[in-house]
Amino acid sequence: MPVTIDLSGSVAVVTGGTRGVGAGIARALLEAGAEVVTCARRAPDKPVEAAGRTARFLPVDLRDPAAVADFFDRVRGDHGRLDALVNNAGGTPFRMLGDGAAEQQARVVELNLVAPLTASLAAYEVMRRQPTGGTVIMIGSVSGTRPSPGSAVYGAAKAGLDNLARSMAVEWAPLVRVNTLVPGMVRTELSHLHYGDEDGIASVGRTVPLGRLAEPSDIGDACVFLASDRAAYISGASLLVHGGGERPAFLDAATANH
Predict the structure, then answer these.
(1) Which residues are catalytic?
(2) Taking the model in full, what pTM does it have?
């Protein structure tokens, strides 16, 4: 008998869920049967749809605590509950540390660490009043597990997010589970900005042990698992979804002359 995950009747919020990885997460949750609410500062050009269903969009600036609290109050009022929050919103421009002012670097921390904290606190106020609690999923990054030149502050914020999730998992147990999903390189509509044309994307993909970049659906499927009862005893964990990681550079260097 096949194992399926059915999230019918549950309500999930995906921050930054209108494009790229966030849209992939929203689509996977829709396919699993969840009601999905996405949020961002600006409405998407087209709604996120999957399996004949559409994610709802509500605008919110995640850097505004009062607006975030109002957003989650509205989700609870309109949908009656909140079962999962996926803190996906984030990102950074490529910028070496010496090329950015302190204020610019602080905004990266605000978006990638402070904003998920703000959203999690507001979601917790809803979840802790529900008999079934809920789950919070942080979207981290391999940039938070290794040196990240050109995105050092982003990596530091993602490392902090992972540590924050572990502490939340302890403080908010047993009602609310908190985990971090740690993606590697993901192919999105913006991949060309990082990896170049199709040949460049394929070349970068060959550096991954599984031979390709992740698709947004790969990240979405992992979120569906963490949001489900199949992960009922998983909390305070970091799930690596990186295709095996990155081939160590010394291996190629050591064999270059052989």
Answers:
(1) 154
(2) 0.93
